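Q: Given only this backbone (370 positions), what sequence would you predict?
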């Protein structure tokens, strides 16, 4: 940790080792001491840039490896917990090896362009790699201003990769639901299908969230447990995801006689008395078990959200209302979550054929009249 606390003066200071030499900073450029740890952490890149500008010999020995912990600490301070966790793995596996052992002075725009070409040739995780690499170059730009993060971009695919999503119609979902004997599990999948919640939002529900005739979405259960083995809870993914639902008739029977306390609605099978919520892996195994019991194909947990959006749109609901219902934007609902319900293509063909038939009949009748 390059930031330390001085008990005597109750201030923070920066201590950095570059090329085996120690450098310390006790105040910012205006001479003010660091009374908060956050101020010292934010001033670290500026302090390193002053060192590299004044000392050419030190400048040559500054490695990108020295910037890795500073970059990750900056991301941890600025990003949400789940966003930071999602960035940490691709950075350590895909992006850091490109810069490991490389001097900061050798990082040029030409090298960034070659890096962009290499990433775009990779078959998987291209988008997240470009995002993380661009974020790291933007961080290096604080020290080396001539770097251009826009040299990193996702190349256009002339043959787009279409995700193979599977969805349930309402009849198929009712068949799936009929194979579930556990009332609490029926409650979980009913919420996933009719409300279109993300699985983290559903698993993070507490009984106290059902009050005043509404269901309040205020938290999301993260996949990543902390070091103590406890489950991590964060706010929902976006601002639109913080929303309130009216309690519909499909879930009202599950709420009768329940105490509105702070217990999780869906408790883990491993330790129901511990108060831990159901985990992702446990919920995933439930979909496999009940789809087999119902004799129907299995869909992923997130595809219940896709099923909800497609079912609502096929029943005449407009995009704006559906986007508000699932807590997303109209563009995402249109481009990502909407899929054709099985049989809708046949309905379109019948409609087009009937239109041609009517046109041909009208033409024949007009000719005979003439």
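A: Predicted residues:
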């Amino acid at each position: 940790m390059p930031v330390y606390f001085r008990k005597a003066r109750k201030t923070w200071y920066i201590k950095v080792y570059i090329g085996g030499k120690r450098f310390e900073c006790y105040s910012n450029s205006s001479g003010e001491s660091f009374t908060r740890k956050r101020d010292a952490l934010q001033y670290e890149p500026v302090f390193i840039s002053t060192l590299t500008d004044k000392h050419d010999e030190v400048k040559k020995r500054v490695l990108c490896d020295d910037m890795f912990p500073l970059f990750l600490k900056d991301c941890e301070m600025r990003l949400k917990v789940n966003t930071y966790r999602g960035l940490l793995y691709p950075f350590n596996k895909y992006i850091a090896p490109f810069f490991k052992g490389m001097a900061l002075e050798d990082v040029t725009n030409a090298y960034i362009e070659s890096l962009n070409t290499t990433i775009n040739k990779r078959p998987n995780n291209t988008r997240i790699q470009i995002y993380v690499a661009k974020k790291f170059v933007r961080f290096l730009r604080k020290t080396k201003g001539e770097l251009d993060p826009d040299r990193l971009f996702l190349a256009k695919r002339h043959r787009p990769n279409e995700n193979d999503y599977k969805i349930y119609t309402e009849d198929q979902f009712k068949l799936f639901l009929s194979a579930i004997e556990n009332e609490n599990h029926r409650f979980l999948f009913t919420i996933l299908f009719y409300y279109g919640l993300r699985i983290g939002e559903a698993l993070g529900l507490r009984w106290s969230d059902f009050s005043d005739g509404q269901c309040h979405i205020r938290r999301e259960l993260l996949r990543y447990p902390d070091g103590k083995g406890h489950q991590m809870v964060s706010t929902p993914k976006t601002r639109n995801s913080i929303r309130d639902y009216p309690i519909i008739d499909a879930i009202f029977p599950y709420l009768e006689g329940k105490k509105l306390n702070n217990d999780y609605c869906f408790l883990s099978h491993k330790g129901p008395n511990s108060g831990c919520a159901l985990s992702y892996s446990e919920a995933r195994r439930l979909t496999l078990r009940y789809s087999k019991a119902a004799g129907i194909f299995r869909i992923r947990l997130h595809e219940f959200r896709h099923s909800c959006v497609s079912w609502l749109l096929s029943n005449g609901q407009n995009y704006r209302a559906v986007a508000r219902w699932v807590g997303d934007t109209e563009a995402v609902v249109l481009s990502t979550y909407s899929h054709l319900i099985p049989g809708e293509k046949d309905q379109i063909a019948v409609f087009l054929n009937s239109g041609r038939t009517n046109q041909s009949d009208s033409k024949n009748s007009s000719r005979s009249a003439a």
